[in-house]
Amino acid sequence: MDMQTPTDSHAEIREEVRKLCARFPGEYWRELDQRRGYPTEFVTALTEAGWLAALIPEEYGGSGLPLSAAAAILEEIHASGCNAAACHAQMYTMGTVLKHGSEEQKRKYLPKIATGELRLQAFGVTEPTSGTDTTALRTFAKREGDRFIVNGQKIWTSRAEHSDLMLLLARTTPRDQVKKKTEGLSTFLVDMKAALGKGLTIRPIRTMMNHNSCEVFFDNMEVPAENMVGQEGRGFRYILDGMNAERMLISAECIGDAKWFINKAVEYSKQRVLFGHPIGKNQGVQFPIAKAYAAMRAAEALLQQGLKKFEAGLPCGEEANMGKMLCADAAWMAAEACIQTHGGFGFAEEYDVERKYRECRLYQVAPISTNLVLSYIGEHVLGMPRSY
């Protein structure tokens, strides 16, 4: 079932990504899921094909593609039954360095990130006590000469065990000494390989899906002052700059998941015969799938609108936030329809439905929770009083 639009400007990219993903069928992902393994072969293939360097400008060794192309790449990965969560941060986390880093930092890191020689996949922001209240984080970086000494803790730092670099957000000025709570936060590039065992400790967190999430501890960890990205105290703004892009790329993954579930459900409903006819003939089976398809198309249209605004340099916070919520909802609706269509077989590992079902549930919560999206809409779109 072809769900692509005839005017898709990235049709060739999608086709090539589908070919690559065909080399990594359900058996590959099931085996990884069982042992909580990292998809090294898959990530290597994406890297060698240049897909993870899509957003890095050509002058730094990347492809210099627009955000819509990166969205097409991630969507197709998920629509093909694969999972980009193991490496998608390689595409957008570097944006902070690209936009706010020094020319020396760009020349030093971006070409190696483009080739995969360096993995910048870890994003150290969330903490156990502050969650999404980023300005309340406690990790502190104290300046001592030509270095910073970092102490604190991060949680849900995905891919920390498989990344060479971490983009770390830490407070450099105590919260009670700044005029605004968003001030006094700074961003750093942490060489995780050099710091591991020397002030840096990584502890994996076992979760319901194979997402390589970790808890990270900093105990007098040293970071060279030259590894600060941008100006001291402006890190919160730097992090915010990349959030719209991140949300739209995650939205694209959700659309891909929705398409995978819908295709899976449609095909099974045609093949599964009960009481003398395919179960897809029954409205009780057919209508939930059709409704999920309609929801997916509506969310996809909003996402495409957001991508166009982003590429035109226009404000796109409304589309990025609403799109993330609606795309995640569409994926979950499609997942529900798919598992219900399969009945008991939907819970069997060999069908891959239960694995994808677990994976797509994450995006109701991350990278921003639905409640915070609704708060954004209420305050910034509808002009209502701030709810938190």
From TrEMBL:
The keyword Flavoprotein applies. SUPFAM superfamilies: Acyl-CoA dehydrogenase C-terminal domain-like, Acyl-CoA dehydrogenase NM domain-like. Keywords: FAD, Flavoprotein, Oxidoreductase. One of its GO terms (molecular function) is acyl-CoA dehydrogenase activity. Residues 233-366 form the Acyl-CoA dehydrogenase/oxidase C-terminal domain. InterPro entries: Acyl-CoA_DH_CS, Acyl-CoA_Oxase/DH_mid-dom, Acyl-CoA_Oxase/DH_mid-dom_sf, AcylCo_DH-like_C, AcylCo_DH/oxidase_C, AcylCoA_DH/ox_N, AcylCoA_DH/ox_N_sf, AcylCoA_DH/oxidase_NM_dom_sf. Residues 122-221 form the Acyl-CoA oxidase/dehydrogenase middle domain. Its cofactor is FAD. Belongs to the acyl-CoA dehydrogenase family. This is Acyl-CoA/acyl-ACP dehydrogenase.
